[in-house]
Amino acid sequence: MWCHIRHLNPQAKDPQRIKIVDKNFVSNVDYTGIEFPVTSKQYNKIEKQNNINVNVFSLEKQDIFPIYVTKENYDNTMNLLLITEEEKQHYVLIKDFNKLMYKKTKHQHQKYFCMHCLQCFSSENVLNNQAIKIPEKGEIY
User: What is the CA radius of gyration of the chain?
Assistant: First the structure.
């Protein structure tokens, strides 16, 4: 929830700190029926209750991989990194996914990554044109 609030209400100074303004901002998000700590089964419920796309990635041995990539199509997208250490879990807001993934290739210019397969593309246009549409259940191509 705090990552969601920071996503909606960015702060330049000490963004990791929860401030009074953030506590007042809680009324702008709907976490009704969401149990904490949040599990992957609740991501879609958060999306639908708040009209936001949620993507969650994990870090394991310096490799980032998707845990949950949204199927929703809202105007706003929040990307999170789930850090797990033994039984403790912590969500971190990803402000720029392409910057997070930048060092995964040797290409030295701007990069655009597919959130499903983590493939790197040279432009957002190429990324969007190369996207593979996965058929819905019962759909035939």
Answer: 17
Q: What is the pLDDT of residues 33-61, one digit of tens each?
A: 999 989 999 999 999 999 999 999 998 87
Nearest to 5 by CA among 98, 100, 78, 97: 78
pLDDT in tens, 89-110: 999 999 988 788 766 655 566 7
Instruction: Give Cα separations from 132 to 46, 55, 109, 121 (angstroms).
Output: 26, 18, 24, 14
Is 18 in a helix, a strand, or coil?
A: coil
DSSP string, 25-78: HGGGS--TT--SS--GGGHHHHHHHHT-EEEEEEEETTEEEEEE------S-EE
Using DSSP bridges, classify how beta strands 112-113 and 120-121 pair: parallel, antiparallel or unpaired.
antiparallel
